[in-house]
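debug: dumping io for the single-chain case to check the tokenizer round-trip. Nothing else runs in this session.
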Amino acid sequence: MAPFLVLFRRDLVLAWRQGGELGLALGFFVLAVVLFPLGVGPELEILRRIGAGVIWVAALLAAVLSLDRLFAGDHGDGGLDLLALSAMPLEATVVAKCAAHWVTTGLPLAVLSPVLAELFDLNSAAIPVLALSLLLGTPALSLLGAIVAALTLGARRPGVLSSLLVLPLYLPVLIFGAGAVEASLSGVGARPYLLLLGAISLAASPLAPLAAAAALRQALD
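debug: decoded output
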């Protein structure tokens, strides 16, 4: 556990010190959400209907923007080769990096969502569901994104390629995340959607590191 915690802490410190990419993802999330009410207009009924979907789409795109910092920096300076040769399994390295990515990206998105939900006049009962859906769903975004980030490592235009590959993987998370808020607003109950989001994140926890580690080994060969 000691090497795992050291790597996790190192990635957290680097993310905070090199705050440009972190600020870019969070800034994009906030601006994308803020611009929608300005473009759609002041009709509260329309804003309530689209609010959850807009926030989830903005969170998804913000996660895509931050995927490059998962492995690209270590690959560029040779650190990834040292991590692959270390005693810690490469799968554990992927988990540590995904955990740091979620803490610096997914968690802030979930924390900011209740504030931004006020722009869409969401029901007060639906706002906790929105935040909880993001807390349950964003770990899957980091884990699934790690697979694509590993597959596109060393590509000429990894940003464009990553977007094309990762967005289909993110669709179930988006559907169930926005669906949880819609179910809460309609009175049906958000519990099934939240359970499905949690199941996706739990299923990705052991499977995504295996796939990402295999892709990293291929990229390093």
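debug: round-trip ok. Residues 113 and 131 are 6 Å apart (CA to CA).
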